[in-house]
Specification:
CATH superfamily of one domain: ApbE-like superfamily
Strand order of the largest sheet: 4-5-9-10-13-16-17-18
Helix content: 25-40%
CATH architecture of one domain: Orthogonal Bundle
Number of helices: 8
CATH class of one domain: Mainly Alpha
Number of strands: 18
Order of helices and strands: EEEEEHHEHHHEEHEEEEEEEEHHEE
Structural class: alpha+beta
Radius of gyration: 20 Å
Largest sheet: 8 strands, antiparallel
Shape: globular
């Protein structure tokens, strides 16, 4: 899923910090990974430390792309999809982590989040290009290859079994947040504590910039318009259908596919989630976009009490916000 850019990084922490008499300087890098610009902003004592850490972080992101990509035929995820209908397959810890979280979100949302949505997503992309809805028979045939209930996970053996032939996994609603978490972990192992990793609508944040209490982020579509928050050691993800859409027979359809129908969403919604980590914020922003505020907020309060949600249905004048406590 291509996320709505509802989070904008503002200038913050441009000064220097003398820790053990060593000033920290701001460095910024950008590379294309997972189909988007992956930006890293970090504070380090010198160029050598900064470039070494950033290079290692990007290498980790590239490694995850090789595992989780749904457009590279040789990726581990694509090989698993190709084995659908067959016996269990042992997978990497990274892929198992993604699938475990995806299955949890699917369970608590009654399938509003469904990583097996791949066949529907492909069908909907074709329908958008053609400018008409999928044929009902196509939808029915595709439905047989979609369904989170057809995924079997064995945590002891770390195996995955896709029960229905022709299943295709699509991690687009959760993988970038996880990649941000992993990149931040690599930076920390290289001694970089103050850092930010951004994948478009998904941002993972470490310690604050030198001399600041947090990274300054503007959340669009909040209750009172644009709201500015300061975050550290957290993640923020945005999603929604206010930008990418198509109108067919007088109905406005989003690029975001509802896994329960196989069609694009028809509710104009903008969602931003703040959570302790990117795996959580990314997955929740996708889930909430499909569910809407009325159904989503009770789920957040029960299962993710540390998350904060900004949800605006665009036709409304107010937004539902603040699920759970502040981070």
């Amino acid at each position: 899923m291509l996320p709505l850019i509802a989070v904008v990084l503002l200038m913050s922490g441009c000064g220097l910090h003398h820790a053990a008499h060593t000033p920290l300087k701001r460095f910024q890098y950008s590379q294309v990974h997972m189909g988007v610009q992956a930006r890293i902003v970090l504070y380090a004592p010198d160029t050598v430390h900064a470039e070494r850490a950033a290079t290692a972080a990007y290498a980790r992101i590239a490694e995850l792309d090789d595992i989780l990509s749904n457009y590279r035929p040789a990726s581990e995820l694509m090989r698993l999809s190709a084995a659908s209908g067959g016996p269990p397959v042992r997978v990497s810890p990274e892929l198992f982590t993604i699938l475990s979280r995806a299955q949890h979100l699917a369970s608590i949302s009654d399938g509003a989040f469904d990583i097996t949505v791949g066949p529907y997503a492909k069908l909907w992309r074709e329908a958008r290009r053609a400018g008409h809805l999928p044929d009902p028979e196509q939808l029915q045939e595709t439905a047989a290859r979609v369904g989170w209930q057809n995924v079997r996970l064995d945590s002891r053996r770390r195996t995955v079994q896709l029960l229905a032939p022709g299943m295709e996994l699509d991690p687009g609603g959760i993988a970038k947040g996880y990649a941000g978490d992993q990149a931040l972990a690599v930076l920390r192992r290289h001694g970089i504590r103050s850092a930010l990793i951004e994948f478009g609508g998904d941002i993972v944040i470490g310690d604050p910039p030198p001399g600041e209490s947090g990274w300054l982020i503007r959340v669009e579509h909040a209750t009172s318009g644009n709201e500015t928050v300061r975050l550290s050691n957290a993640a923020i993800s945005s999603s929604g259908d206010t930008v990418q859409f198509i109108e067919i027979d007088g109905t406005r359809y989003s690029h975001i596919v509802d896994p329960r129908t196989g069609l694009g969403l028809t509710d104009r919604v903008a969602v931003t989630i703040i959570a302790p980590d990117g795996l959580t914020s990314d997955g929740l922003s996708t889930m909430v976009s499909v569910l809407g505020s009325k159904r989503a907020l009770p789920i957040l309060r029960r299962h993710f009490p540390r998350a904060r949600a900004f949800i605006r249905h665009v036709e409304d004048t107010a937004a539902a916000t603040e699920s759970g406590s502040s981070l």
